[in-house]
Amino acid sequence: MQAVIKKKAIELLESGTVNRVLGWKAGEFFYDLTPAVFTTPEQIEKDFVYSVFSGANMSKYLIDESKKEGKVAAFIKPCDGYSFVQLQKEHRIVRENIYAVGLACDGMCDMREIREAGIKGVTSVEEDGETLKIGTIYGEKTMAKKDALLERCVHCKSKKVVDCDEMIGENGEENRDCGRFDEVEKLEAMSPDERFAFWRSQLSRCIRCNACREVCPACSCVKCVFDNPNSGIAQKAAASDFEENNFHIIRAFHVAGRCTDCGECSRVCPEHIPLHLLNRKFIKDMNELYGFYQAGADFESKPPVMNYTTGDAEPSIVYARGGDK
Amino acid sequence: MKKISKAKIDELFKAISAKETLYIPVDDSEGQAAFIPYAEGLKMSEDLNTVRSAKDLFFPQVESLVNFKMDGKHIEIIDAATEKKPFVIFGVRACDARSFDILDRVFYYAEPKDSFYIERRDKSTVVTLACNAPEETCFCGAFGIDPAEPAGDVSAWQDGESFFFKANTEKGEALLAGLPLEDAADDAADKVKEDIRKITAMLPLKDLDLSKFGPGKTQELFNDPAWATLSESCLGCGTCTFVCPTCQCFDIRDFDGGKEIRRYRCWDSCMYSDFTQMSAGQPRPTQKERFRQRFMHKLVYYPDMHEGLFSCVGCGRCLRKCPIHMNIVKVIKTIGEEK
What we know:
The structure holds 2 protein chains of 2 kinds. Chain A has helices at 2-14, 41-47, 61-65, 78-89, 111-116, 151-154, 182-188, 192-203, 211-215, 241-255, 264-268, 276-290, 317-321; strands at 20-25, 34-38, 72-76, 98-103, 122-128, 131-136, 141-144, 166-168. By secondary structure, chain A is α/β, with parallel strands linked by helices. In chain A, strands 2-1-3-4-8 form a 5-stranded mixed β-sheet. Chain A has a 3-stranded antiparallel β-sheet with strand order 5-6-7, with no helix packed on it. The longest helix of chain A is centred in the C-terminal third of the chain and has 15 residues, at 241-255. The radius of gyration of chain A is 21 Å and the shape is globular. Chain B has one domain (2-338). Chain B starts with a strand and ends with a helix. Chain B has an 8-stranded mixed β-sheet. Chain B is an alpha+beta fold. At the A-B interface, strand 2 and helix 9 of A face helix 8, strand 11, strand 12, helix 10 and helix 11 of B.
């Protein structure tokens, strides 16, 4: 796959279709790839990497990149593609300035899963069918690829690239039966006190690094309200620990209906807080109240919370669904 | 040297915590290690390092300084400082132990002195623990730190059966004197040290070259074009600064509760858009300048002010946690190699 993608990237540059390529750049190790803009075939030959560690969703970089001179090539995995379309719907990216190459994807790996499986000091990885052969300074280890997948890939909701100029690999289909709401259901089954305790415990680890917000393709405000010192709310650690909790809840509300469930928030959280569960709860509720809706799945539909219909749920629904108060 | 069998480690923790609060690294429900007060039943984390560094115990992320209470025209000023109790931290790694030296030069010795920090430092006893299994992201050796010989008031080592302890300071001797430990030969931990050094010799970042950085390099490095490409994909989050054991910047803010104002300080991050913002504007308007500030501070400005000491300890937390995998090693290699 990598060889085909690199060839395509070079071809696009050499033919003048684009003047730069957004991609993943090799790091110190096999897993620490950094999003980067490549401008020459030599750079691509040397440093462009596409592997199971190319998990980063690049769509948000297109907000800035698509406003620069000339066309940029972007490689879009299916889940990134939902963000790509959603950002177009929100008029945040200039589509004419992008040459989008869709990529078929069968899941990305997470170094955190590998480390938590007790594999330390990693230096190399080799895919051997369904197995990862991992070289470490403490000898070679093996792990099933399925156990090393990012959470969002374990519950992959779609293998379909919604919008691209061409595909590498075969375009796939949505999978509504992916089990991504299982964890939300477990939370719903808790008593309000248990649920409160769960979130207080999870969010108590928050260090307000704002990585979840910075990486989120739906968080595309030019200036976030939390960055305005006059807003009375703090961007850094707050005066009370509840303010941190509040930050995540407010953010989930703000992206509701626009969140594509790309899972980047949970991927980047240095404290491993399952932030995606907040967003999924909103998605699940919207699906139940307004019918199935996937943000970024098309160019026409309106998010249910931004679209009034006479069949909408009445506000009193909160009493029916609020649990025992 | 003293020792205790591993099976009896809980006895040791109980003995320490009977007298003072004892912090040990513990995994939470999601497997994230942090220093928390010991209580019976807690198990020491097997992770090499905590997610946040041990600096939290001296320089917490949020700390109240003073409170103001308003009643009509009367303002009452309430000192928010509370008396700190003596405490012990167990299991600090060599890298974090060095970070205390770096922070001491800023908060303990330099003027104005930071009374909050000083009180905590004075009342703490640091027990370090040698690293039996360093990771690929470790590069403390580049800063002259030996993970087989960690500093602190007491240094500790472990093998399959026992923990070994050596006091380095009076505080350390006082701590060990009151504990249920057996005597051990002075060379009892030598085999462990030897094994650790065999591993450090294999670490992929062991030859990190810092010769292009240090005091007096500001003019040469400040306008390097590489800052633009290195910072290109930086998200501007504060992960690197908040997991860093040596980052020391803070902000002072007021929380206005109407009739009561709480003045507190909290960690700040040079990656944030309002960092050092002044009425005249933002001296570092884009992520390039903010990014450059962070690495120049660690590798040039701090060494300029502190006899060449770098303010990085090679713990590798930023290598593991940066959402886009940009980090100080990539900066050192990129800028170091092109010169």
